[in-house]
Amino acid sequence: MLDDFMLRAALAGIGLALACAPLGCFVVWRRMAYYGDATAHAALLGVALSLAFAVPLFPAVILVALAMAAAVTGLGGRNNAGDTLLGVLSHAALAVGMVAVSFVPGIRVDLMAYLFGDILAVTGTDLATIWLGAGAVIALLAWRWSALLLATLSPEMAVAAGIRPRAEQWALNIALALVVAAGIRIVGALLISAMLIIPAAAARPLVRTPEAMAIGAAVVGVAGVVGGLVGAWHADLPTGPAIVCAVTVLFVAGIVLGGLRPKRR
After folding, report:
1. CA–CA separation, 254 vs 24, rounded Å?
2. Cβ of 10: how many Cβ atoms within 10 Å?
3. Which residues does 99 contact at the CB level (< 8 Å), separation at least 6?
4. Which one, of 27, 43, 44, lies nearest residue 35 by Cα?
């Protein structure tokens, strides 16, 4: 029994880490960290909709995440400061989601499970959902990699090359919604953005190409999942926060090692 649930937890975490790695690189490159927070916090409203209308959690969270993306895109060009707008939407989404869950009649919900996750309770169905979502994200990003990279580095050059930056932004929005929907049961709404940002930030000082950064972020994410599970098991710690602590340690190590590398001339 121990082997079964630990194996499911490890496989679920690894699937999430592999999906977050390339997507997290674009989040870091585009300075979209707060955007990830807003999408993850909005997932709680998706939980409320799922419970209220008795629909599966995965599509409900995706729907709300895409609605958040549409709100950010629609309001972003109306003289609203980007960080301020995302900050307002992030905290508002979290508050509205928690209030909405409390209004669902006849259902007692463990909000801690959705805020911080419970990777040890992952079922076989959850595992299939996570890996299907991760596979869809990886396939989408692999298909659009060159276009996404050019639109990220230089929107003007992307337009000149016949690429529509707004369409590429929506590809990222869809991928982010899939990751949030797949990961909310593992590390929860409050910590999912950490799995997007920290592994990518840890790999950044150690590599010199975008592809190497995506691979490095995957290595850091997987190592953080395994290390966090082992630490949580031996020290009786909450698993979601333990995983994030593990990748944070790897982030610090990456900063230190990056500072020791010789500078290119």
Report:
1. 16
2. 17
3. none
4. 27
User: Mind listing the pLDDT tens digit of every residue in the chain (265 residues)?
Assistant: 456 888 888 999 999 999 999 999 998 898 877 777 778 778 878 887 887 777 887 888 888 888 887 777 666 554 444 567 777 777 887 788 778 777 777 666 666 677 777 888 888 888 888 899 889 999 999 999 999 999 988 889 999 999 998 888 888 888 888 888 888 877 787 778 888 899 999 999 999 899 999 999 999 999 999 999 999 988 988 888 899 899 999 999 999 988 776 665 5
Distance, in Å, from the CA atom of 138 to the CA atom of 174, rounded to the nearest integer, reads: 12
End-to-end CA distance of the chain: 55
| Side chain identity, residue 146 | S
CATH H superfamily, domain 2-190: ABC transporter involved in vitamin B12 uptake, BtuC (1.10.3470.10)
**C-alpha distances in Å from residue 57, one per residue of 6, 127, 133, 173, 184:** 23, 14, 13, 18, 10
Three-class SS of residue 251? helix
Question: CA-CA distance, 15 to 11, in Å (whole number)?
Answer: 6
Q: Is the dihedral of CA 148, 154, 158, 161 positive or negative?
A: negative
Estimate the crossing angle of helix 57-76 against helix 33-53, to 10 degrees: 140
Nearest in space to 64 (alpha carbons), one of 177, 213, 183:
177
d(Cα 98, Cα 115) in Å, to the nearest integer? 10
